[in-house]
Automatic annotation (TrEMBL):
Keywords associated with the record: Transferase
InterPro entries (UniProt xref): Nucleotide-diphossugar_trans (IPR029044)
A GO term, aspect molecular function: transferase activity
The name this protein goes by in its record: Glycosyl transferase
Lineage: superkingdom: Bacteria
Protein's organism: Rahnella contaminans
Length: 406
C-alpha cells in the first residue's frame, strides 16, 4: 500500500496486509510471463561456510519465478570454487557462479585495467559490477534483484516483496529499495544508518544548504540496505563505487538517471538480522570505521558533482553540526527503546558517534588530498564502447568455468 501518511519524494510501500508468500509468488509467476526475473548474490567464499547462506539457498530452492541466479564469488581458490559449484548445485533455477579470482575472469580484468576500465580495488562493489556485466550479457532477465549473503533471518517472502513493485507490468517503477526495522536480540542495530547517515544528511543540509538530492536520500527509510531490485536495463548506465559506498552510490546514480516517480521502497521484513561488523576503533581500514569513511566520501563526491563548494574549513563546522544532531537522535532512540522494552547502551551509542565524527574529518581530508581519485567504476555502457565484445567474452568465460574444467 502506498504511503498515504505523507507526500514523500519517492513512493513507499508498507507491509500492511501480511499476504502469504505463496500468494505473492503466484502473482510473480504470472508477471514472469512478461518480465523475466533474475537475482544477483555477491558472496565471499567464507560465507559458504556459515549458516546464513546455507539457509538462503534452502529458501531459494523453493522460489518458482526466478529465471536465473548469478553468484559473484570472491576470495576463492580453485578447490574452493569447485566446492562452490557443488554447494549451489541444488538450486533448481539456472545459476552461474562468477569465479572472480579465477584465471579467465582475471585475464579479462587485466585487459580492462589497461584502459582504466576496471575497478580499482576488490570489494562488494567490484563483485556486483562483474555480476551486472554477466547479467547484461546473459540477456535472460528484464528485472533483477540483489541482496547480501549474510542475512541470518532470511525468508523467501523478503525477495518476493522486493521484486513485486518492479516485476508487476502494471506498475511503472524502474527501481525498488528494500527496508526493514533493525531490531534484534532486544536492542537496536543498524548503527551506521541511525548514528551516521541520518544525522549526517541533516547536517549536510544545515551546513551547505537545501539540496533536492539530500532530501531524496532522507526519504529512504534505510538507505544502507543491501536489498534492491531494478529493471535490468538500469545496469547499463550505473557508475558505482567499489568500496562500502556502494549503496549510497547506487541511490546517487538513480537520482541522476531516473525520475523519482519511477523509484520506490518497500517494507520487506518484520525481522532482519545479518553479520555485524566490528567497530575497529584502532584500524581505519576495517569494520565500521572503514565503512563510515567510505560512505561519507561517497556523499562528499556527490555533493561536489552537484556544484557544492566543499572546503577543508567546512568539515570542522560539519563535524560539530553532525555531533550535536547525532546526540539529539540518541535521545530519541533511547526513548523509543524504553517505550518498546528494548535495552539501550548509551555509552556504546555515544562512542559510535565519536568514531563517526572522526570519520567525517578523515573522509574530508582524503577527499581534499586526492582530487584526481577515480570515485566510480565505469558504466557497462562505456566498457562496451571501448570493448564491443567484452560482455560476450565475460559470458563465455563464466560458462566455461561453470560447465568445464578449471
Amino acid at each position: 500500500m502506498s504511503d498515504f501518511y505523507q507526500d514523500g519524494v519517492i513512493t513507499n510501500f508498507h507491509n500492511l496486509t501480511n499476504r502469504k508468500v505463496e500468494e505473492l509468488e503466484y502473482d510473480l509467476q504470472v508477471f514472469s510471463g512478461r518480465r523475466s526475473m533474475g537475482l544477483i548474490l555477491p558472496s565471499l567464499f567464507s560465507e559458504l561456510e556459515g549458516p546464513a547462506l546455507t539457509h538462503i539457498v534452502d529458501e531459494l530452492t523453493k522460489v518458482p519465478y526466478l529465471e536465473e541466479i548469478v553468484i559473484g564469488l570472491d576470495r576463492a581458490d580453485r578447490d574452493q570454487f569447485l566446492f562452490a559449484r557443488e554447494f549451489f548445485s541444488r538450486l533448481p533455477q539456472r545459476h552461474r557462479i562468477l569465479w572472480n579470482d579465477g584465471p579467465r575472469l582475471k585475464a579479462l580484468d587485466e585487459e580492462l585495467k589497461k584502459e582504466n576500465l576496471s575497478p580499482n580495488e576488490p570489494g562488494k562493489g567490484r563483485n556486483v559490477w562483474f555480476c551486472a556485466g554477466y547479467t547484461l550479457a546473459s540477456r535472460r532477465t528484464s528485472v533483477v534483484g540483489l541482496h547480501d549473503c549474510d542475512i541470518v533471518t532470511y525468508s523467501r517472502d523478503m525477495l518476493a516483496r522486493l521484486m513485486y513493485p518492479v516485476a508487476n507490468p502494471n506498475f511503472h517503477y524502474d527501481f525498488c529499495k528494500g527496508y526493514y526495522a533493525r531490531v534484534a536480540d532486544g536492542k537496536f542495530n543498524g548503527r551506521v544508518g541511525r548514528l551516521l547517515v541520518f544525522p549526517l544528511l541533516k547536517s549536510l543540509q544545515i551546513v551547505y544548504g537545501h539540496s533536492d538530492f539530500l532530501e531524496y536520500l532522507r526519504t529512504f527509510r534505510y538507505p544502507l540496505s543491501g536489498e534492491f531490485a531494478m529493471r535490468t536495463h538500469v545496469l547499463n548506465d550505473l557508475r558505482i563505487p567499489s568500496d562500502w559506498g556502494l549503496e549510497i552510490g547506487v541511490l546517487s546514480e538513480l537520482h541522476r538517471n531516473t525520475a523519482t516517480r519511477r523509484i520506490c521502497q518497500v517494507d520487506i521484513a518484520d525481522n532482519y538480522d545479518h553479520k555485524h561488523q566490528p567497530m575497529s576503533e584502532d584500524d581505519a581500514t576495517n569494520g565500521l570505521q572503514r565503512m563510515s569513511i567510505d560512505i561519507t566520501k561517497a556523499l562528499y563526491r556527490k555533493m561536489a558533482i552537484l556544484g557544492v563548494n566543499i572546503t577543508s574549513e567546512s568539515f570542522r563546522i560539519l563535524k560539530a553540526t553532525y555531533y550535536r544532531n547525532a546526540l539529539d537522535m540518541i535521545d530519541s532512540f533511547e526513548n523509543d527503546a524504553r517505550m518498546n522494552g528494548l535495552s539501550f547502551d548509551r555509552h556504546s551509542e555515544e562512542s559510535a558517534v565519536e568514531l563517526f565524527s572522526g570519520a567525517i574529518m578523515e573522509a574530508g581530508q582524503a577527499f581534499v588530498d586526492t582530487p584526481s581519485e577515480k570515485p566510480f567504476i565505469p558504466s557497462w555502457s562505456r566498457v562496451q564502447s571501448a570493448f564491443p565484445d567484452m560482455l560476450d567474452r565475460i559470458h563465455e568465460a563464466v560458462e566455461k568455468d561453470n560447465e568445464g574444467d578449471v
